[in-house]
Specification:
mainly alpha; 97 residues; rod-shaped
Length: 97
Protein backbone atom coordinates (compact mmCIF):
# COMPACT_ATOMS: atom_id res chain seq x y z
CA UNK A 1 0.00 0.00 0.00
CA UNK A 2 2.80 2.35 0.84
CA UNK A 3 4.54 1.54 -2.45
CA UNK A 4 1.36 2.21 -4.36
CA UNK A 5 0.88 5.52 -2.60
CA UNK A 6 4.50 6.44 -3.21
CA UNK A 7 4.24 5.52 -6.89
CA UNK A 8 0.98 7.44 -7.21
CA UNK A 9 2.54 10.49 -5.52
CA UNK A 10 5.59 10.28 -7.81
CA UNK A 11 3.37 9.94 -10.84
CA UNK A 12 1.27 12.92 -9.74
CA UNK A 13 4.40 14.98 -9.12
CA UNK A 14 5.77 14.04 -12.56
CA UNK A 15 2.51 15.01 -14.27
CA UNK A 16 2.36 18.29 -12.34
CA UNK A 17 5.98 19.05 -13.20
CA UNK A 18 5.35 18.28 -16.87
CA UNK A 19 2.28 20.54 -16.86
CA UNK A 20 4.24 23.28 -15.11
CA UNK A 21 7.10 22.92 -17.60
CA UNK A 22 4.63 23.12 -20.50
CA UNK A 23 3.04 26.25 -19.04
CA UNK A 24 6.48 27.79 -18.53
CA UNK A 25 7.38 27.02 -22.14
CA UNK A 26 4.13 28.60 -23.36
CA UNK A 27 4.78 31.67 -21.23
CA UNK A 28 8.30 31.93 -22.62
CA UNK A 29 6.99 31.59 -26.18
CA UNK A 30 4.39 34.28 -25.53
CA UNK A 31 7.03 36.58 -24.06
CA UNK A 32 9.31 35.99 -27.06
CA UNK A 33 6.44 36.66 -29.47
CA UNK A 34 5.55 39.84 -27.63
CA UNK A 35 9.16 41.01 -27.62
CA UNK A 36 9.44 40.25 -31.33
CA UNK A 37 6.32 42.30 -32.06
CA UNK A 38 7.66 45.16 -29.94
CA UNK A 39 10.96 45.12 -31.84
CA UNK A 40 9.14 45.04 -35.18
CA UNK A 41 6.95 47.98 -34.13
CA UNK A 42 9.98 49.96 -32.95
CA UNK A 43 11.84 49.21 -36.19
CA UNK A 44 8.82 50.26 -38.23
CA UNK A 45 8.51 53.49 -36.24
CA UNK A 46 12.23 54.17 -36.68
CA UNK A 47 11.85 53.57 -40.40
CA UNK A 48 8.95 56.02 -40.54
CA UNK A 49 10.96 58.65 -38.68
CA UNK A 50 13.91 58.10 -41.04
CA UNK A 51 11.62 58.50 -44.06
CA UNK A 52 10.16 61.71 -42.63
CA UNK A 53 13.66 63.00 -41.91
CA UNK A 54 14.80 62.17 -45.43
CA UNK A 55 11.77 63.95 -46.87
CA UNK A 56 12.51 67.03 -44.74
CA UNK A 57 16.14 67.05 -45.86
CA UNK A 58 15.08 66.65 -49.49
CA UNK A 59 12.62 69.53 -49.15
CA UNK A 60 15.24 71.75 -47.54
CA UNK A 61 17.74 70.87 -50.28
CA UNK A 62 15.17 71.70 -52.96
CA UNK A 63 14.46 75.05 -51.33
CA UNK A 64 18.17 75.80 -51.02
CA UNK A 65 18.73 74.90 -54.68
CA UNK A 66 15.85 77.15 -55.76
CA UNK A 67 17.19 80.02 -53.64
CA UNK A 68 20.64 79.49 -55.12
CA UNK A 69 19.19 79.59 -58.64
CA UNK A 70 17.36 82.84 -57.87
CA UNK A 71 20.52 84.35 -56.38
CA UNK A 72 22.53 83.24 -59.40
CA UNK A 73 20.04 84.91 -61.74
CA UNK A 74 20.22 88.15 -59.72
CA UNK A 75 24.02 88.07 -59.77
CA UNK A 76 24.04 87.51 -63.53
CA UNK A 77 21.60 90.38 -64.04
CA UNK A 78 23.76 92.66 -61.90
CA UNK A 79 26.91 91.58 -63.75
CA UNK A 80 25.26 92.26 -67.12
CA UNK A 81 24.18 95.75 -65.99
CA UNK A 82 27.68 96.60 -64.83
CA UNK A 83 29.17 95.32 -68.08
CA UNK A 84 26.56 97.15 -70.13
CA UNK A 85 27.42 100.41 -68.35
CA UNK A 86 31.15 99.82 -68.77
CA UNK A 87 30.90 98.80 -72.43
CA UNK A 88 28.23 101.35 -73.31
CA UNK A 89 25.92 98.64 -74.59
CA UNK A 90 22.51 97.22 -73.73
CA UNK A 91 22.02 94.76 -70.91
CA UNK A 92 20.81 92.17 -73.42
CA UNK A 93 24.04 92.58 -75.41
CA UNK A 94 26.09 92.28 -72.21
CA UNK A 95 24.25 89.05 -71.34
CA UNK A 96 25.15 87.60 -74.73
CA UNK A 97 28.85 88.47 -74.35
Amino acid sequence: MRKTALIAASLAATVALAACSEQTQKSAENAADSASKDVQAAASAAGDVAKEGAAAVESAADKAAAASDRMGAKVEEHRARIEADAQNESVDQAKRD
